[in-house]
Description:
alpha+beta, 7-stranded antiparallel β-sheet, 38% helix, 13% strand, elongated
Amino acid sequence: xxxxxxxxxxxxxxxxxxxxxxxxxxxxxxxxxxxxxxxxxxxxxxxxxxxxxxxxxxxxxxxxxxxxxxxxxxxxxxxxxxxxxxxxxxxxxxxxxxxxxxxxxxxxxxxxxxxxxxxxxxxxxxxxxxxxxxxxxxxxxxxxxxxxxxxxxxxxxxxxxxxxxxxxxxxxxxxxxxxxxxxxxxxxxxxxxxxxxxxxxxxxxxxxxxxxxxxxxxxxxxxxxxxxxxxxxxxxxxxxxxxxxxxxxxxxxxxxxxxxxxxxxxxxxxxxxxxxxxxxxxxxxxxxxxxxxxxxxxxxxxxxxxxxxxxxxxxxxxxxxxxxxxxxxxxxxxxxxxxxxxxxxxxxxxxxxxxxxxxxxxxxxxxxxxxxxxxxxxxxxxxxxxxxxxxxxxxxxxxxxxxxxxxxxxxxxxxxxxxxxxxxxxxxxxxxxxxxxxxxxxxxxxxxxxxxxxxxxxxxxxxxxxxxxxxxxxxxxxxxxxxxxxxxxxxxxxxxxxxxxxxxxxxxxxxxxxxxxxxxxxxxxxxxxxxxxxxxxxxxxxxxxxxxxxxxxxxxxxxxxxxxxxxxxxxxxxxxxxxxxxxxxxxxxxxxxxxxxxxxxxxxxxxxxxxxxxxxxxxxxxxxxxxxxxxxxxxxxxxxxxxxxxxxxxxxxxxxxxxxxxxxxxxxxxxxxxxxxxxxxxxxxxxxxxxxxxxxxxxxxxxxxxxxxxxxxxxxxxxxxxxxxxxxxxxxxxxxxxxxxxxxxxxxxxxxxxxxxxxxxxxxxxxxxxxxxxxxxxxxxxxxxxxxxxxxxxxxxxxxxxxxxxxxxxxxxxxxxxxxxxxxxxxxxxxxxxxxxxxxxxxxxxxxxxxxxxxxxxxxxxxxxxxxxxxxxxxxxxxxxxxxxxxxxxxxxxxxxxxxxxxxxxxxxxxxxxxxxxxxxxxxxxxxxxxxxxxxxxxxxxxxxxxxxxxxxxxxxxxxxxxxxxxxxxxxxxxxxxxxxxxxxxxxxxxxxxxxxxxxxxxxxxxxxxxxxxxxxxxxxxxxxxxxxxxxxxxxxxxxxxxxxxxxxxxxxxxxxxxxxxxxxxxxxxxxxxxxxxxxxxxxxxxxxxxxxxxxxxxxxxxxxxxxxxxxxxxxxxxxxxxxxxxxxxxxxxxxxxxxxxxxxxxxxxxxxxxxxxxxxxxxxxxxxxxxxxxxxxxxxxxxxxxxxxxxxxxxxxxxxxxxxxxxxxxxxxxxxxxxxxxxxxxxxxxxxxxxxxxxxxxxxxxxxxxxxxxxxxxxxxxxxxxxxxxxxxxxxxxxxxxxxxxxxxxxxxxxxxxxxxxxxxxxxxxxxxxxxxxxxxxxxxxxxxxxxxxxxxxxxxxxxxxxxxxxxxxxxxxxxxxxxxxxxxxxxxxxxxxxxxxxxxxxxxxxxxxxxxxxxxxxxxxxxxxxxxxxxxxxxxxxxxxxxxxxxxxxxxxxxxxxxxxxxxxxxxxxxxxxxxxxxxxxxxxxxxxxxxxxxxxxxxxxxxxxxxxxxxxxxxxxxxxxxxxxxxxxxxxxxxxxxxxxxxxxxxxxxxxxxxxxxxxxxxxxxxxxxxxxxxxxxxxxxxxxxxxxxxxxxxxxxxxxxxxxxxxxxxxxxxxxxxxxxxxxxxxxxxxxxxxxxxxxxxxxxxxxxxxxxxxxxxxxxxxxxxxxxxxxxxxxxxxxxxxxxxxxxxxxxxxxxxxxxxxxxxxxxxxxxxxxxxxxxxxxxxxxxxxxxxxxxxxxxxxxxxxxxxxxxxxxxxxxxxxxxxxxxxxxxxxxxxxxxxxxxxxxxxxxxxxxxxxxxxxxxxxxxxxxxxxxxxxxxxxxxxxxxxxxxxxxxxxxxxxxxxxxxxxxxxxxxxxxxxxxxxxxxxxxxxxxxxxxxxxxxxxxxxxxxxxxxxxxxxxxxxxxxxxxxxxxxxxxxxxxxxxxxxxxxxxxxxxxxxxxx
Length: 1933
């Protein structure tokens, strides 16, 4: 029973304290005046009566009513019902003569109202929430006052304050006499029902009124009225759910509304749907304006504020604002609300919408049934039922995770959060984690945890309805039915008797004509009211005490969690098999079958990823523990440890599945004996896991153990006390601890004091003993074996652990935790390396926490604190001995380190260090894409002077015999970073390195624990030293053969050496190398030029044509080199690729007298001392007419002095290709300046240089035969078409392509054509802007010339039709198709196109007389290339597997833009090829002339000239364009310390990739194979050869490298030049040769360059783990020999083996294991030759013979064969031959291979390009049951010079062929003779080498269209049979 109202208060406006605009309220009267003992008077009440502030108003307002909620210090809620009305007061200002502040805004002449109205509030303060009753009572008091009823006000108030009602149903009451009407009232309504009184109470206040109060049946369920339904109507489903989740996860929530009552209702509704959780933070449904600063509190809250204060809430950054009037919820950016886990969120939304909008389901029905929407009250309960249903799902099975630690004197209960989340498989769920960590849930556990208490609706749901909820989930109708049932219960609880809703009230008719009270509210008589109160109190005392019979009972736990999860199928599907593996392995280990166990181990470790297998492991291990101990031998111990580590590694630190908990007793059980009577337990080997440092884990473990012990304590008690109930013992065993506790709680009151005391004491000592036990356990797992290493504790900063404890304080004793021992120590752990101290502190903190919570006495706690340091110290001493002994153990047998084979001259710098090679992002090797897991592998890493090599074996024993090798040249290392790796086998976190190489290799290695960390550091230092030597002479190519230790560090030489020292050097090095050259000098004499047989002896005279105007300052070579050094000269000549210039007819080395003056070009020696340009070769091709002195001047205009020189000439059109660097900035203007144009005062020298430059370009143009002076000075519009006649018809065919190409290269932007004004190139310049037709002479000279720009557009402009036509080669379009205007008959192309960099060509203007044209293109800079390459490497060789959808291989490849860059280079090259082919010369002058220029120039020559597509030609191309013309290999490859910062930029690799793309499109045009390109790509970065070292010929000469390549054969093993190596290798093996090579004469290639036509080069992605990269041929060959030997040995011992071999893509080298047909045949030929003891023929000779033989055969064939090559495969149809017809201008990258396709598709036999009948039968091929019409042995004579061999021949009538096999049993057909081709069968004659002693008539010949086959049978009859059979087959056909 409780009072209906505690206080009645009258609050009025305080007229005295009226300061400023804000008034104040004051309490006028309060009753009772003394505070109740159990309920003090709440302070600050007056603020809440007028939350918006106390103010006087000029007009009377209607009365208002709302309920505010105040919370006192004990978190009790007080409901303050405020009834406010307005009384008139005189205007205080008028009285005082002051100006009125209220109406200050009004104009001064308005009269001030004399009458003002002040608010007055009647307030009821109660602990009950009966809003309607309060409204009625206060209205009654007001009515009495207004209507002046003749009832004393004191009586009414006295009755009100003494009214006593039950809190909830279930109490039988003798009522106080004051409520006199009750019985008669009840009697008339429902006679004869006693229990009605329980929840129905009628009261009267003695003013002729009566009202019924319905108290809820169960007060634990909240009362909501209609507020929940109202809230959903105001805000909507999603918003309310959002608020609900925010409240549960402890966010701040603020409601805004202009109605106070609505604010209260909304807050009440939010609390109602949170049931069974109770909100325990700040809760203020109505916050007065004066207290708004409360909103900035840091704690969570639910607060309501009048929307009048909306602006003040704007700056709150972390508050969720719900506007009830506007229906919006605003969530700030920084707030993240965790929503309900799916699918719960979705289900909940669906069900609520079914409740709120039942019509939704039938809205689409044609005949919708009439759906009667439920009343608000019912809807309200239904929504609450949905939330109850939701909580039942969220918390199902929570009681199974409660730990009861103490039962007496009162239950102490903890919740095991980790186990709950683990079993629900929700460990990752954000929402549930936060809810379980929250205060509301802590309250829930303490309130609902006790096992013996009254139960309510929620307990019933959890206990009995979980199964039903689970089954209904998919069916909304069933769920709805359940919800309605729950709603009914809720409604019944709130309105037990809905019929009895009767109020008889006297209301003032305010709305009609209010009788305004003249008097103000009277002052009441305190004494009279107090008398009432005292009288009632006395009455209560005499009344008998109320015994509230609480229906306590045992709380049922509901179904356990395990089953629920299993049925959801969260357990792995194939777990049974896995568990079997785990069990078997453990059995093997304990049966000492170690070999079996070893085989199963990897499978077990994989299985242990699953939870079921981990649980199984703990159970199995438990069975092998006897009396808490299991002694193992070393190997068993090792295996068990590995399994435990693997199990723990996959547990999270929360240990949600209890695996670590289950292992905890086991790690102290398994042990092994070490020497000297010392035992090592397994805990010393499983400490590296985070779970042991997690305080929550230890608490949960501790509590579950305490619970077990307390359970046994009481089970024993019962058994001791009552032995007679034997039959029930079985049942009792099943009792859970909670059930026991419930039973004990029930018995507690019946026990005597002594018994109670005894039980308390027993429980306390149980907890205490467990605390000691745990202090020991923790010290075991936290103290490392070697106490100097304390990785674990230091890393995790154990100091912060206490903040994340998961057990809740529900016990008052726990309050003392604040003073707990040593709580501040958290900070020191981090620094203190003293392990013992940090462990002691950690254990102390744990003990404090658990002992305080579980009520251990202070004496015991102190005892524990003194004990802990001793425990730790003792344990440390034990560990020292164990550590000492464990070091003496023989190390576990690790696999033997395999040593790699080294190249001749390669030496170990560091011997093998044991490491593990970890799998990276390439999945092939890990077995995840099928195949065996080759990685991780265990082995060693070796650092040699040349390479970094890993060699080892896979850790998976199934592939343990295979050898895994990964290596790359140390010079190709691009990135090295430290990583830490967890090995799947040993579980230890290891230091590791990740090494990335630009040969597309990645090594992730983890050092084995036996490798000291300083050794790893030494390894890194050595690696860096070798990667970046001080000087290029430190690279392997130079140090090879010397001892690697003696790497000399050269001083870097002064860059600007004088000419004299250079010439000295030149002579010295030349001498030095010539001395060594005598052996092979003959071979390298330069080829003859013209008719001279060799260099003449007049070498001292003017031997190289020197320009007439000799520059005196430069010495000639002949004067510096004495006659004894003549050989040097020939070397210079040889090296400068003069052979090539000679071949191209670009100039000769004749004497000045004999040189023909009409040759357009000459070889100039101006740079012979490398004075003009250091990065150019010594001999250069320049126009005949340009003297050397001019060249020296011109060179200054170009960057790096790289002036234009000729590098190739088209033999047909005589157009030349020039290369140079871009112009210097100052040169640009001069370059395009017309000489007479006014300039901004240029220096004289400048303009003269500019003139010379023009002269130079003009000289080049003049050299072209197509240029003729006859047409006069060709102006742009005046070109005649005479020159076109010189180009042949193919030219005209090709021409239209150029325009399209130009447009592509320039980028297809829609541009308006425009000319450019002086000084700036118009941004929108079209392909070419031409001058208009019929230009006057004046206009022609004006600087508005032609200008190429590579930014063309897709379509030509409409109003300037001829724009771009000149390049596009089209005629101007005419409207009527008639002839074009005469002056545009043929737009002429320029003679010279200059491909320049757009950025450099800004700001120039051009003279319209000149014949060159500039094509500005955008080239990529080196930074772009470098970044692109890095991304390409990461895409092709990712460092870790990435499962993100946007990080797939193709996405990464696209982002790298590598293909895009290839496309740009190819596009420009093809454009240049087109231009050269149409007879224009091209000068490529991009950047510094040594990167992109080199790429373009080389590609152009490769595409235009078939010679460069041969092996020799390609070598020459690279030597000429890349080496001689100074591509900076050392700088771009970052080969030395100096260039380290510039990073690796793969310019040459990009060029090789372009060649690879062309090779793919034209596979028959190249003599070299794809492997040749890969070989170069690998060795240009490997530094194995000197070829690609240094940046120019000048540097090579300076170091003496240039000429010694030719000589010096002291060590034949060591090749210094990659070319020599390739030549040597090419003689031995056809690996570099392309069998499909059959070039067209003079064929120009024009590959497609669209990205869709480009393929990723497999060089980037392939790898061969069996042998490492195959580019160091000696290593591969050596390995093969070894393998064949081994195979031979093996075959002797074993029985006949199958011929099948499994090929693994990333392990085996495919082209070796599965060679192509021709390679295989050549190998067989060589093998047979060696078998027969014949001298083996070189492969090339064999191949050439076959080719010539095949050519002869193909001529004999009647049909024309389209190809003269031996086609290996018939899939050429998708490859392009150059005969493909272009789809002109379509921009589609495809070609029509007309002739080709039809022929190829008809081809089936690889050897010859012709059809055969056999193809028709190929689909019917069978093995044994073939139609063998006749068969037997015949001798067949081989081809030319081959012996006779016996073969098994089969004549097949069906397939019409004669097949032969090696032997009768052979399934593989060795050859087929088509009978269709047979012309005759005749008797033959014995030939040379035929089998002896055989009748002459046994020989017969079979003549086919191709050749004659000679056969020999066993005898003449047999021969006759054969001939007849064949003849009959022929005649049948």
